[in-house]
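Recall that a protein's primary structure is simply its ordered list of amino acids. Everything else, from secondary elements to tertiary packing, is in principle encoded there. The following example makes that idea concrete.
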Amino acid sequence: MLQQQLSLLESQLVSTLDACTNLAQIKQVHNHILRTGLDQCCYVVTKLVRTLTNLNVPMDPYPRSIFDQVKCPNPFLYSAVIRGYSLQGPLSESIKLYGLMRTEGVRPVSFTFSAILKACSALLDVSLGRQMHAQSILIGGFCSDLFVGNTLIDMYIKCGFLECGRKVFDEMPDKDVISWTGLIVAYAKIGDMETSRELFDGLPVKDMMAWTAMVTGFAQNARPREAIEFFERMQNAGVGTDEVTLIGVISACAQLGAAKYADWIRDIVEKRGSAAGHSVVLGSALIDMYSKCGNVEDAYKVFAGMNDRNVFSYSSMIMGFSVHGRADDAIKLFNEMVKTEIKPNKVTFIGVLTACVHRGMVDEGMSIFDSMEKCYGVKPSADHYTCIVDLLGRAGRLEEALELVKTMPIEPHGGVWGALLGACRIHGNPDIATIAASHLFELEPNAIGNYIMLSNIYASAGRWLDVSWARKLMRRKGLKKNPGCSWIEPRKGVIHEFFSGDMTHPMSSEIKQVLMDLLDRLEATGYQPKLSSVPYDVSDEEKRRILITHSEKLALAFGLISMNPGCSIRIMKNLRICEDCHLVMCGASQITKRDIVVRDNMRFHHFCNGTCSCGNFW
C-alpha cells in the first residue's frame, strides 16, 4: 500500500512539474520534493532537471547541484543533465558527464547519445560526432536503435557529410518517415532531386512531411513543373497540406507564371481554411505569385484583404507594381507603408527604386535612395546602387552614372556594371561601354550576354574592328547563347513551350501561316524588322528569318490560334524580350484588339492598343 502511495505521489509531482511555467513554481515543487524525501528518486529528479532546462534555467549552479546531490543517478538522470549542457553549453561538460557515467558503470541509453549528437550538429563538430557514433557501436545495442540512427543521420547531414548519413541510413534495420525525409530534404538542398525522388518512391508510407519535402525541393531547385505535379499527386492521394506545402507550390506557380494554376492554388488555400487574410506568410506568397503570373490586380486584392501586413507583404506588393510598370502605385504604397509602424527593409527599397527605374523617375529615385540610411537606417547595398546606375544611365546621364560607380563605398558587382553597359546600348556610347564591359569580363567571364551587348554597341557605332574582336573573344572562350524559350498556357494544366528557331510543334504549319499574315499586316502599317536584334554576322535576309522564329513570336501566333478572340494572351520568356519582338507585340495588340502580356527575365510588358506599359523604357 505504501509503495502505491509513493508511486502516486511521484506521478503527482511529475504532473505538477509539467504545469510549471516559471522558476518560482519549480522551486516550490522542489521544496515539496525535499520535504517528502524524494530527492533521491531519479524518476522525479530527472523530470525536475528537464523542466528547468526547458525553461532555459542555466545548468550552473541550480540544476547541476540537484544532480550532484543524488547518490546513485540512473542513465535517464545522467542523460537529462547531459542534454542540458548540450543545449546550453559548454559541450565539454556533456562529455565529462558521459565519461563519469561510463566510469561509474552506468550504461548509456539512446537519449544519452541523441543529446550529445544534437549538440555536435549545432556546433558542426563532426569529429566528436564520429567518436560518439563509434561509442554507440562499441557499447552495443544502438546500431539498430531508430532514435539514435535518425540523430546520427541528422548530425552527418548538418556537418556536411551527406554520404556518411546515407551509409547510416542504408545500414539501419528499421526506418521511419523521419529517416527517409531527412535524406530527401538533404539531397534536395544540394540539387540532387533524382536521388530525392528515388528515396521518396521507396518510402513505404508517404505522409505530409515527405510530400512537402518533394514539392518544396523541386520549387527551390527551379523545377516548378515537377513541384506542381507532385502537389497534384499529393492532392489526389488525399494527403493534407500545411502552410509550408502551400508556400512551396505557390513559389512553383510564381516561377512558372501560369495564371490558371494560380487561381487553382488559391482555391485550395481558401478551401483549406488558410485564407490569405488570416496568414501574413501565405498572403505575401500569393501576392508574389499573382504578380509573377501577370495579374497584379489579383495580387492587390489579396493585399487589400489581409488582416495583418508586415514588411514582406508590403515589399511583395511594391515589387509587383514595379515590375508591371505601375510606378505611381508602387510609390504611393511605399509612402503609405512608411506612415505605419512597419519599417521598410532592403527588399522594399529595391522594389520602389525599380519602380522609378521603369518609369524614368530620376529625381524621385534619387530622393528615395538618399533617404534610405538617413531616415530608415538601411545601408544601401550593391543592388541598390545598381538601381541608381540604371536610373541615371537610362536617363542619358552616363558620365554621372560612371562617376557614381567609381565612388560608391562598396565594391560594385556585375549587376552595377551590367546596368551601365545596358545604358550604353540605349544611348550608343561605346567608350563607356568598353569600361563597363572590361569589368564584367573579369566578374562574369562566361556570361555571353555581356559580349553580345558590347558587340552590338560597337556595331551600332560602326566600329567593325571592335565588333570582330568581341566576337573572336566569344569564340575563343567557346561561349554559346542560351536558346530563347517562351511558354504559354491556353488552358489550365496545358503549357506549350517554344524555342527560338524550333518549328517542331505539332501546329507549326498553322503557327507559321498566322505569323506571316500578322507580319504582313504590320508591315502594311509601317513596321520594319529591327535587324540589329540579331547579333550574328549574317545577311539581312537571314536576320529576317531568325527574327521571325523568335520564341515569343511563335508563342504569340499559337495564342492567336488557340485562344478565343478577345482573350488576353500571356507569354513567359526566359530571356529579355528583344527590340524587334517588342515592336511586333505593340503592333499586334493594336491589330488584333487583344491585350498581350509578356514576362521576360526583367519585368512585365503589358501591350494594349499599340503601346506598352514600359513606355519603351526597358
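The longest helix spans residues 2-19. The longest strand covers residues 485-491.
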